[in-house]
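W.,

You were right to be curious about this one. When I first looked at the sequence I had no strong expectations either way, so I just let the prediction run and decided to look at it fresh. Below is the sequence, 242 residues in total, followed by the output.
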Amino acid sequence: MNVQLGSLLKDCLSCPRITDSPWCNLDAETTAYLSAAKVCRPYIPGQALYRHGDSCHGLFCVLTGTVVVRRSNADGASVIVRIAGAGDILGYRTFFAEEAYPDSAEALIAATVCFIGREAVQTLMEDHPEVARRFLRRMACDQSETQERLLQNAACSVRDRVVRLLYALKCRYGTTRQDGSLEIRLPIGRKDIAEMIGSCAESVIRAMRSLEAEGLAVFKGRLAVIADPVELFSPLEQELVR
């Protein structure tokens, strides 16, 4: 870890992601308490933040990098259920339920993650009820998104599900090129994409080939290039604003 990053991690006020988190709008004294209470550490790819069955002792905040959350299905196979990036908080549903983790989290690429222990989180919520309200809103949104995703998977074709996933990934992993095309560096491979959208790798590959045949996208390894993002995503965006 370099010196600049190390100094950044000591002070939550300097964190570029705090405005998007439940910790936003805390006064300087409370934010200083949060800074002193947390522990930040680097994770190498494949290193676990926590594993299925572990006791939950606090919350994880992703500062940099990408973390995947996996859960085992009925067949015992590991399935990615969430991709977390900078600004995301992990483990809060388990924290509030006071249960063991039902899933596992590991760094997909090199990541820096801050851990805030249970006592500090409880103190912050007791002294600042708005923090607890923000977590409640976040959990309600998570539940709504999960239900919506289940409905989409039941009603949409694999091709449409792939497009929806690309749309979800474009803000965090997308870069607009000079010619107006959109480049998305996919954080996961075909198999994991298939698991996330409730399909199989062969169907995902066919859907990608269909998009290529239509001239809408090109896929090379984990790189997706969308020739005309407006053409590909506008029908979805119109649906989302209804």
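Here's what jumped out at me. The mean pLDDT is 86. And, maybe more interesting for your project: The first strand starts at residue 39 and ends at 43.

Coffee later to discuss?

I.
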